[in-house]
Amino acid sequence: MARSRPRVWLVAGCAAVILWASVAQLVAVGRFLLLFGLVGDADPSPPPSALPPPRIYMSNGYLKISCNGGLNQMRSEICDMVAVARLLNLTMVVPELDKRSFWADQSNFGDIFDVRHFINSLRDKVHIIEQLPEKLGPRDSNIIILEMPPVSWSDEKYYLHQILPLFNKYSIIHFNKTDARIANNGNKLVHKLRAKGSFVALHLRYEMDMLAFSGCNHGLSPEEAEELKKMRYAYPWWRDKEIDSQAKRSQGLCPLTPEEASLVLKALGFQKDALMYIAAGEIYGGDRRLEPLRSAFPNLVRKEMLLDSEVLHQFQNHSSQMAALDFIVSTASDVFIPTFDGNMAKLVEGHRRLSSLLGASAFSMNALLCKPFREIIYRSF
User: Fold this and answer.
1) In 3D, which of 204, 192, 232 has the Cα closest to residue 332?
2) Rg for the chain (alpha carbons), in Å?
């Protein structure tokens, strides 16, 4: 009995450390989610009396930004630029979402994020406006806007010593390529799925851009692998060109194929009649590639099958809004299973864990399968 006491204390100590670290991470994720209105009530904006007092400062100029990339990249970029505006005492204009990148997205900031909540929740940090004042419009020839991308991975010295002095000459600086109202329709999807019973959200990360930029070509034909390689080389800003696909896969850095996903789902005990929602964009190879998964689980659905054509048309060429829909459904599913441990998986995992920790009744936390799912497949193949 005496010998077992140190072991008990050791286990208890390790558990306490792990719990403390998990809570710290979850609180951080929760703040990000609350900040951008991705969670909460239909109208998360607090009453005026509950708003923090506005920060009073002499503005050094106006900062415009255009965000590029996927949903999580844009969220990170917005957070970075809020910090820059706070550091330099700038007035920030509600961000624009880039419409020229690979994703060819036509979404606006207000299509995805709650604009009023964004402005109000940060009013004690930085002054944010929805658009530039009319006096700074194009008719005024004295107004000069500097269009530029910021230097990647820059620290505060770069912004203080190189960017801030530029406002002596320019009234507005537009970071045209930063580096680094979906709730109702998301709820419609959730209600339709709930009407069919419990469901699994399968984040099947087997899209063309994912495979091309990761260099993962397991299960593809030589022609398909060459097509993806050419696509990667077509984007000069993408740093990794030559990629050893087999090495990345052996390190667990590649998404599972649909066939591998079906094998693991069956191994985990999911029955043939399980309702599976595919939380992803267009799967590379289309229905042909999905056939092994659909054969194993015929009750496979996508948002394109659940939304009315008129509603779905609103989201065409709006990949970020599509991703936001998948995020909402994934957080509300009975089971969430990612086939790749990427940003989306981490964000959903953090949200679900935080919701469970806070006892949020709006989200089910019956099961969460993340890294163990990936580890099983790489021990088996």
Assistant:
1) 192
2) 23
Q: Is the pLDDT of residue 287 over 70?
A: yes
Task: Compute the distance between CA of residue 114 and CA of residue 44 in angstroms, rounded to an integer.
Answer: 8
Burial annotation 268-300 (CB, 10 A radius, 16+ → b, else e): eebeeebbbbbbbbebbbeeebbebbbebbebb
Paired tokens of 234: 């077509």
User: 333: which DSSP letter?
Assistant: S
Surface-to-core class of residue 240, CB atoms within 10 Å of its CB (0-12 exposed, 13-18 middle, 19+ buried): exposed
Q: Are strands 276-278 and 200-203 parallel, antiparallel or unpaired?
A: parallel
Helix/strand/coil for 337: strand
**Ordered structural domains, the chain, with CATH:** 62-179 (no CATH), 183-206+255-380 (3.40.50)
Least confident of 35-44, 70-79, 94-103, 187-196: 35-44
Helices assigned H by DSSP within the chain: 4-35, 71-88, 109-112, 115-121, 156-158, 183-195, 208-214, 222-233, 245-250, 258-267, 286-296, 303-306, 309-313, 319-332, 343-358, 371-380
Q: Are 64 and 93 in contact (CB under 8 A)?
A: yes
The number of C-alpha atoms within 13 Å of 165 and in the hemisphere containing its C-beta is 4
Which pTM does this prediction carry? 0.54
Rounded to an integer, what distance in angstroms lies between the CA atom of residue 314 and that of residue 71? 18
In tens, the pLDDT along 120-179 reads 989 999 999 999 887 776 555 567 889 988 877 677 888 999 999 999 999 899 998 775
Q: Are 145 and 170 in contact (CB under 8 A)?
A: yes
Which of 351, 373, 346 has its CA nearest to residue 363? 351
- Structure tokens belonging to residue 295: 């054969």
Structure tokens that stand for 128 in this block: 């944010």
